């Protein structure tokens, strides 16, 4: 299938092919799309929503803002209710989320789409479609498979603004503790995370990075801190030919 290329001012086209089973380096996904959609489709997620909004406002938006491009099509994957986009002043982009309920919240938030319900591991766009991709708090659900798709649809030399929970023992222990305390949903015990060491094996250069830390009363990004927990990266796509797309 030839996939649409998105030019400046053009609207991406949603993929109408049916869903496929996601794979993570040949292993079936430990957390299903249904589980993720079920959790993020809930109307009541007070702790999660407040946490994400505070992290976006205090830490991620200030870190990403100076890297944001406005000279071509931008993809925001896992856009949720659009809080990070609004904090960045990004009023117009291609917004994609796995959950239809999140998409409805996003559309009601005063942003200009298009709005697409879709899967990061199977993006419905041609190679090198976007000047920039934004993906916050999603890649720990997909592992490297999601990052490879972001790289595929981003133009060479352009940047991906990403934030995710990395997979160190420290982070896994902290997530399990949060689940035990009822702060995170049980599905968080099954996520594959994304190892920061894996960035050396894909077609990107690290242009900037930081760790999100809580320094009361606010979250901050620290470049000098070890990359554990929630980490933020500005990744520039290299010039190597894109990897063949997974079909399994």
Q: Would you give an account of this structure?
A:
This protein is of the alpha/beta class and 248 residues long. It has one domain (34-212, 219-237): Rossmann fold, CATH 3.40.50.150. The protein has seven helices and ten strands. It has helices at residues 33-40, 46-65, 83-88, 100-107, 139-142, 144-153, 169-180, and strands spanning 23-24, 27-28, 74-77, 94-97, 115-117, 130-136, 154-165, 204-215, 218-222, 230-237. The strands form two sheets. Strands 5-4-3-6-7-10-8-9 form an eight-stranded mixed beta sheet. Strands 1-2 form a two-stranded antiparallel ribbon. Helix 3 (83-88) links the parallel strand 3 and strand 4 (94-97). The chain is globular, with a radius of gyration of 17 Å.
Poorly predicted regions are 7-30, 243-248
Distance between the termini: 15 Å
Placed side by side, the strands forming the largest sheet appear as: 5-4-3-6-7-10-8-9
Number of strands: 10
Mean pLDDT: 83
CATH class placement: Alpha Beta
Q: Kindly report the name of the CATH homologous superfamily.
A: Vaccinia Virus protein VP39
Provide a count of the helices. Answer: 7
> What fraction of residues sit in β-strands?
15-25%
CATH topology name, in short, is Rossmann fold
Please describe the biggest sheet, giving its number of strands, its sense, and whether it closes into a barrel. Answer: 8 strands, mixed
Element string (H = helix, E = strand): EEHHEHEHEEHHEHEEE
Structural class: alpha/beta
Gross morphology is globular
